[in-house]
Amino acid sequence: xxxxxxxxxxxxxxxxxxxxxxxxxxxxxxxxxxxxxxxxxxxxxxxxxxxxxxxxxxxxxxxxxxxxxxxxxxxxxxxxxxxxxxxxxxxxxxxxxxxxxxxxxxxxxxxxxxxxxxxxxxxxxxxxxxxxxxxxxxxxxxxxxxxxxxxxxxxxxxxxxxxxxxxxxxxxxxxxxxxxxxxxxxxxxxxxxxxxxxxxxxxxxxxxxxxxxxxxxxxxxxxxxxxxxxxxxxxxxxxxxxxxxxxxxxxxxxxxxxxxxxxxxxxxxxxxxxxxxxxxxxxxxxxxxxxxxxxxxxxxxxxxxxxxxxxxxxxxxxxxxxxxxxxxxxxxxxxxxxxxxxxxxxxxxxxxxxxxxxxxxxxxxxxxxxxxxxxxxxxxxxxxxxxxxxxxxxxxxxxxxxxxxxxxxxxxxxxxxxxxxxxxxxxxxxxxxxxxxxxxxxxxxxxxxxxxxxxxxxxxxxxxxxxxxxxxxxxxxxxxxxxxxxxxxxxxxxxxxxxxxxxxxxxxxxxxxxxxxxxxxxxx
Length: 524
Description:
Number of domains: 2
Number of strands: 0
CATH topology of the largest domain: Growth Hormone, Chain: A
């Protein structure tokens, strides 16, 4: 009887292995989502894109999701499970990425309008699969980690996505050899590889489902089909706490994801950063390759981020925790010091590399905050703090011309980008019953996409409008874009985010979902 009660999820190594497998799809899709941000200047000079066309390309990625694609995906997920939903929508993302890559390489014609149109079509298909794969990944983490290290696991899953964003932003211009088409082809290939890894995951997922059914049969329980009903969606939308957390998701992410796409270009135009690294033989390289060297630096930062959060949490006595933090911190200092003179100091004057520190910062901080939420709670309070940091970041980068203040703005944005997701996504699992989590996450992603479309496209359009008199001079390389107005718009989103986080905390005090309590602790 004891053997029947144990499943794959009860094995810690197996849980974490499954997390890595599912997270590879998140890594690849986030790379493809954000890598164009590091290529904006090159797309203007090589392919003749305007800022508005760049904004249109990345903004229309979300268009199908405005009409319920993610809701459909969430229903498919709740009805047929993570295997079917992951394969179906992962394949859709891969097909869309492939069309985008073919269009960038002139497969459908080298006319500018044809290339732009087909790249948009590819991005729309990719975006239709992207958001649902994110929902699948989040739902899968709950499936394997609920009752265990849920917030930490979600944070690490997000960390893989942020690693994809950071490496896509920073390395695409290197991988493409200062050309757009090879960078797009590489990004599309990553999604194909990740889809194969997900196929491997489905084998274990199938085994887990069989074990769960066997345990239920042994206990005389019958699996409930629990068919999806639209009344469930209506009930979800009547839940005050869910409404506030969904709206917070919209306004917060609308102030972050679109900004990341424009951050490299902002740093180049406002602070005089470069798009290309100066030629040098002193950069860190691996096996004689600077590109592999760059990849290894990002992976090293990622591993340190995991180490800071995971290793101390496994040590029970306080002395051991402190000692582990000192050791990891010392190794991290030596890692940075060894790379500073030849590589990192140069990176901090390069637009794509510096902008990549925003998602990279989340890799360090999100697991730490996720572990804090697991152990201490305070999820709603952390969302308030994250919103305050968001306002500071965008004011620093829009109204002031200080490079030092700009670095602090980027740092605070990275911390905010860690705080809110680490607190938000585990909180949804407290507000919504597990059988409807797919629909709940899908609803949040759908609402979020309205904000993303407006600001992905809107920042580019407002940028052209704010610089209307000087566009020809700017595109000739004789003048820089003025980013003050487009970025200051995002400050307003931060103010709204604070209001919504406060309302969420008040609603939770009445509905008693326990958002301020540690994982596994129920409110009285």
